[in-house]
Design a protein that fits this description.
alpha+beta, BirA Bifunctional Protein, domain 2, seven-stranded mixed beta sheet, 2 domains, 350 residues, binds 3,4-dihydroxyphenylalanine, two-stranded antiparallel ribbon
């Protein structure tokens, strides 16, 4: 009897190991574990086993049964992983799972990217087509990058603690840290890095990012907003390149009707400096009107020199504008706060 059980075990395991498909597996199950299978037949013969041998044979019987059942579970699990739902359906051990069926929980709110993220991507794309690479810089900056190297002198009103988020006390710290108030900081970082690495100029980058100013929040102001900075330094870059770049951008982004206007202005880090406006129709059918977009100019020689670039050899232009401003213009959004409140009733309209 023990020999029979040993044979059932070794044959059973060997056949199971060579079962090639779901059919073979089921045939095996019927032959070994089924009600008329080999194991049941052996159990039926327990009656004829001598009383003294019964405990040993019974124990062996249980071992063989467990070994075959365990192996069967293991092989059929491996099969269902390999063959997917159809195997489950054929064998009928588990509910059929069709991975291609839509989920039970109907998702009615399909998400989308935030309007500001999409506008930023569109802008990056337009400038990328003009050859601008994307650069980034830290939001936690220091006054060296936010002011000093941008030619903004110590007594300049823009450096007043009232108008900035200083992290260190500027009166008592050598190089006080602050949340950057403009993305112009990235100009300095990029020029410093290019000079240190010996890779530039030429330099042609844009840098979209967050900036922080302690403004009172209203329909057009927020303590955090986004800017897009541009910087192009090469031999012989002129104001004409600046204007044609901005013009090209306006038409690519707003359509062939868009116009650009420069008005002379002042920034410590550019000379000459200008503000630039865009003429666009805010809503379809509206008369086009001018909106102020940002500042620009030819990079001040003092800024180039501070970064180790010879202003006799290289010239460049820079510009910076607010992304919210532009998004509000393009999409007719009346209040900047809508962009940060994350109210789905607003976001779903865009
Ligand atoms: N950083 C200026 C601001 O925040 C904008 C600006 C003006 C950026 C002139 C420039 C520039 O690069 O050339 O108001």
């Amino acid at each position: 009897m023990l020999d029979t059980l040993n044979t059932i075990e070794s044959d059973g395991l060997a056949e199971l190991a060579s079962a090639a498909d779901a059919d073979a597996l089921e045939q095996w199950r019927i032959a070994y574990l089924g009600t008329r299978g080999k194991l049941k037949a052996a159990m039926g013969r327990m009656k004829s086993v001598a009383k003294a041998d019964k405990p040993a044979v019974g124990k062996r019987m249980n071992e063989v049964k467990k070994a075959l059942e365990d192996k069967f579970q293991q092989v059929s699990a491996a099969f269902s992983v390999k063959m997917g739902a159809s195997f489950d359906a054929e064998v009928g051990h588990r509910p059929r799972i069709d991975m291609t069926e839509p989920g039970l929980i109907e998702s009615r709110h399909v998400g989308r990217r935030h309007i500001l993220a999409r506008v930023r991507e569109e802008l990056v794309e337009v400038f990328a087509r003009m050859g601008f690479a994307v650069a980034t810089g830290p939001e936690l900056e220091d006054d060296e990058h936010n002011f000093v190297k941008l030619n903004i002198p110590a007594d300049h009103p823009a450096r007043d603690p009232i108008d900035n988020f200083y992290v260190d006390n500027p009166a008592r710290t050598e190089r006080p840290r602050m949340l950057r108030s403009q993305t112009s900081t990235v100009q300095i970082r990029v020029m410093d890095a290019a000079v240190a690495a010996g890779t530039g100029p030429p330099i042609k980058i844009i840098s979209p990012g967050r900036v922080y100013r302690p403004d009172t929040v209203d329909a057009t102001h927020h303590f955090m907003f986004h800017q897009l900075e541009g910087l192009y330094i090469d031999r012989g870059v002129s104001m004409v390149d600046l204007k044609s770049t901005l013009f090209h951008f306006a038409r690519a982004y707003f359509g062939p009707e868009a116009q650009v206007r420069l008005r002379s202005s002042f920034f410590p880090f550019t000379e000459p400096s200008a503000e630039f406006d865009l003429k666009i129709a805010l809503k379809p059918g509206d008369e086009p009107d001018w909106i102020e977009l940002g500042g620009c100019g030819m990079v001040h020689p003092a800024v180039l020199t501070a970064c180790g670039i010879d202003p006799e050899e290289w010239t460049g232009f820079a510009f910076g504008f607010g992304i919210e401003r532009l998004a509000m213009g393009k999409y007719g959004i009346p209040d900047i706060r809508l962009l940060f409140e994350n109210d789905l009733r607003f976001l779903q309209q865009l």
